[in-house]
Amino acid sequence: LRVPQPLLSAVHKAVCANAFALEAMCTRLHYGAGFFPSSAYLNHSCDPSCLSLRLGGNMAIFAVRDIAAGEELTHSYLPSHKLLLPRAARQPHLFFKCLCLRCSRDIDSGAAAATQGGGWMRG
Q: Which residue has the higher pLDDT, 53 or 97?
């Protein structure tokens, strides 16, 4: 079976964007991936309202802060430790341009800093 490279690449990206890594909590060693249909209803945010954990063959979703009635539930498609990274370091790990509130603020503050001749590093 010969699969054209563009199709193979598209399938790989779709799997990577929709599968959740199964990892040992203490060691962060990945031992597989899982697809969880219910989690498909949650969008990504770099400042998520929920935390998703894989427990055995299940995924559990927990609120990490108070969530207002009608507010969208979000979780991170990235592992928790990558959320600590700055936007430029998080973005390559996603297969889309993240426009969540946190990333939008980073873009806006970066643009403002550039037009004002510096950022948080200036003295």
A: 97
Burial 26-51 (b: 16+ CB within 10 A, else e): eeeeeeeeeebeebeebebbbebbbe
What size, in residues, is the chain? Answer: 123
Do 96 and 41 form a contact (C-beta atoms < 8 A)?
Answer: no
User: Which residues, 6+ apart, have CB-to-CB distance to 42 below 8 Å?
Assistant: 50, 52, 61, 73, 74, 75
Q: Say whether pLDDT at 29 is over 70.
A: yes
Sorting pLDDT into bands at 50, 70 and 90, what band is 117? very low
Asked if pLDDT for residue 63 goes beyond 90, the answer is: yes
Report d(CA 81, CA 85) in Å as an integer: 8
Whole-model pTM over 0.70: no
Tell whether the torsion through CA atoms of 75, 79, 83 and 86 is positive or negative. negative
What is the C-alpha separation between 22 and 59, in angstroms, rounded?
10
Which 8-state DSSP code applies to residue 49? S
Q: Do the beta carbons of residue 116 and residue 110 sit within 8 Å?
A: no
